[in-house]
């Protein structure tokens, strides 16, 4: 008991101190910019896609049709090296909404603190509260007229901070300028929120019945860490068609901006909350779980920042976390002292990142801890949970991601080879990839003797160790067993439990 008590004391101390960390260069005051110097401020619209990587036409993806996002990229700036802080939605969104790493604020386990008295550390506030204080109307939009464009999803690992958004009414925005609006697209996701997935033979994708059928099982080329099998090809085609369907909804949103005369006053930011909805993507700290698209389109009625040139491609290394401080800057609000988010736009933009950090902790009932750091070329992943890997049980994935039970079956029959067979093994403690020569992250270089690989390994190890200390990574202390246990039952009721599992 004394060790547990000391651990809790240490957590409380870190939580109290984290708000005073000044980890971002050029951090400023939390006061809004002088209204006399900024008489008009732009509207800001976040269009948030679920669970996708750079699988858009404007990024060179095949077998998708994304004309509206492609056009947005032609008129705006397309970012190619943006990485989320978590490979799953709630921790990523909690970081993005506060400008603080989820591991610093205690919001790192998936769907945590939904029914307790948890509060964010002192000085840490939701982004929308800061915007509202500066005179912005904040909105989380679900419909434009009769069209469904958003889910209204928040999925934040804090619920006691008060109302996050003021309205969900799109029609009121024209009279509410300046506004900050979020539209959380229904795609890309499995249709799971009726909580009846356990009863279904196959869980459909949201919008599957009407998505454009651009990709087919015969034409797609899934990554080489999967077996070449009809089930793999069918699911990959459904994923790509979901991306095409997402673009249809984005067309509705952009059309409404133009029809209501809002386009010339509204900064549009499109991004994904975490990586791709595939078995080796979401939940894992490979790039497939972390690498996200981002497009920023600046309105003609406001002067663009110096880093902005329509049609440009920005290759800087950016953490998705940095969108928080940059959104405040768009609104004329200085970044609060201690906020870990950095500015990537503006006259006072921070120097480019050398490293982007990410973290995975408990997701649903699955307790696995990973930490990740990457530079412009190399990606280092550390897995703390012995024996964990792709084959670890997660009931949501076992039910919805048909590739996973397929690979389990093929592996048991000795029918997997190469990267697919390797994927079924427990993860080593360290992984190192050269993402330029190995974009699929198949060849682990952590044991390589080549000097450039040893140098990258040592540098990224040290960078991660430093980040863990400087940011007060709370993942060092596991959640109590009585917090985790209810997720076992909830996920069993929601998705069922596979017959092979003989757990507690």
Overview of the molecule:
The chain is an alpha/beta fold. It has a single domain (41-495), classed as 3-Layer(aba) Sandwich (Alkaline Phosphatase, subunit A). Helices cover 29% and strands 14% of the residues. It contains 13 helices and 14 strands. A hairpin with a 3-residue loop joins β12 (370-374) and β13. The model is unreliable at 1-38 (pLDDT under 50).
Descriptors:
single chain, 504 residues, alpha/beta, Alkaline Phosphatase, subunit A, four-stranded antiparallel beta sheet, 29% helix, disordered N terminus
Short description:
The chain is of the alpha/beta class and 504 residues long. 29% of the residues lie in helices and 14% in strands.
Q: Given the structure, what is the number of helices? A: 13
User: Helices and strands, in N-to-C order?
Assistant: HEHEHHHEEEEHEHEEEHEEEHHHEHH
What is the CATH third-level topology name?
A: Alkaline Phosphatase, subunit A
Average pLDDT, all residues: 93
Share of residues in strands: 5-15%
Low-confidence stretches: 1-38
Number of domains as seen in the coordinates: 1
Helix content: 25-40%
Q: What would you report as the Rg, rounded to the nearest angstrom?
A: 22 Å
**Which superfamily, in CATH terms, is the homologous superfamily?**
Alkaline Phosphatase, subunit A
Q: What can be said about the biggest beta sheet?
A: 10 strands, mixed
CATH architecture: 3-Layer(aba) Sandwich
- Please tally the β strands and state the result: 14
Global outline: globular
Which structural class fits the helix and strand makeup?
alpha/beta
